[in-house]
Amino acid sequence: MKINFSKEWLIKRAALDEKHDVSAGTINLNRLRASSPATKAEPVQAFTEAESSNPAFGRLINLWRRKKGLRIDELAEKARIDVAELFEIERNSHYTPEPRTVFQLAKTFGLPQEKMLELSGNLMIRDSSLGQEAVRFAARSESVAKLSKDEQRALEEFVKFLSEK
Amino acid sequence: MSVTSLVHLKDRGAGRFVEANLIDGLTREDVEKADADWKPFLDEQIKRMESTGIPKHKWPQHRHWNWREKYDATEEYLAYRMFGIECQSQMQGLMLALTAGKNSQIASQRGRPLVYVHFLAAAPWNLASIVAEPRFSLVGSILVAAAIHLSIEEEFQGRIGLHSLPQSDDWYRKTCGMTDLGPDQTVENLRYFEMTPEQASEFLR
After folding, report:
1. Which ipTM did the prediction report?
2. Nearest residue of A to residue B187 by CA position?
3. The pLDDT of residue A2 is above 50
4. CA distance B175 to B195
5. How close, in Å, is residue A158 to chain B by CA atoms?
6. Cα(A44)–Cα(A36) distance, rounded to whole angstroms?
7. pTM higher than 0.80
8. Which CATH number fits domain B3-204: 3.40.50.11810, 3.30.470.10, 3.40.630.30, 3.30.565.10?
9. CB neighbours of A139 closer than 8 A, spacing ≥ 6?
């Protein structure tokens, strides 16, 4: 990621920063270890207290859509779902989509409907390995414009896992 | 793969701006060198503070951090990004950011994804709390700006969150204009701060 800083911004910020020490982060390294996907089943949620969050579903849809080269409005049209709801699914991990929407997306992408309902928060996740894989997948994937090889691999492995169970 | 951006730090002694590199994607060698440069300097300052009777609560709160350990714990995960600012052959600041699984706690943004700044630190010689004449300023601002740009790149609209060490609370609250969500009992009672898209835009202006 390349970043440009203007001269004016640097001058302004330098004046503001003069007398401050800057640091952030937990003192205990174990928190970082606890958050690493390979070392704990629910690593990412550890930071978000008791929120109900299903980051893997939105990530899965986002990556799959980009893999197919579709814009949000194009996928919404193809799956016959509301574009605003699709936008919300991809951006808000707390959003629980309507079951019909999940069915339509599963059908469009050829993914197992029941697993998609579980991932989306419409059904309780009964298989703990699905929960673990989902979190691992969410932590491995990044939301950039084009799928990297690693993201592509993460997506393929997760879809394979979904399809095999 | 590392990506380098040209930035400038302010050399406080000389009163002028000097060129530096903001590195996105540090290597293990970068991190090991930073630890090797920072630790002896920090140890020396801690000894001085101890011998001159400076109370422990004024010592740098991240004096035990080991960046190599952080690198090793996170290097295999795409969701972690490590940044550094290199100037005059030394690392002047480091930041570890997480791009997955963290959501906003602010009511207006609740549930929306953000970039979580897991760790951020300036080199010990840049800290006013331990040296009379810190060498460079702008380290913190540039790293926070990098976190915002990362958030924008991730389509998170500039939202970032972090747990501040107490010596920096005022900086995040007053100088960065972040929202102070108060002490987080789940994270060593550190204060949790967030930046909304509007605050991020203001910070970058």
Report:
1. 0.86
2. A26
3. yes
4. 12
5. 15
6. 8
7. no
8. 3.40.630.30
9. A37, A43, A44, B77, B78, B79, B100, B101
